[in-house]
Amino acid sequence: MLLRSAPPVEMPKMPRGQMVRVKLGCMAGLGVLYGAFVWHLAHEKIAPRPNPAARVAIRFIKLPMVIPPAPAPIEPELVQPAPVQFPPPKLVLRHAGHRR
């Protein structure tokens, strides 16, 4: 069989509407396959494997819980800020009839 980059001239052409349906069918099929794959990954039940080397004997020791007393509260010092003085603004008045 010869491999060519272009189809032969005598090959019948597919109608344009049919090509759109084929493309849409392929896209829908790929979408269904992708959706099924993602659903399978999301709903897969993976059972944990017990590792015998990771088993370590644990003993729990009950200790009485001793909470140290809270320190005495510190009263905040209220400080008055220094008064702020701004110089008066410089006003530039322009008359409506005066042009430069």
Automatic annotation (TrEMBL):
<feature type="transmembrane region" description="Helical">
    <location>
        <begin position="20"/>
        <end position="42"/>
    </location>
</feature>
<keyword id="KW-0812">Transmembrane</keyword>
<protein>
    <recommendedName>
        <fullName>Energy transducer TonB</fullName>
    </recommendedName>
</protein>
<keyword id="KW-0472">Membrane</keyword>
<keyword id="KW-1133">Transmembrane helix</keyword>
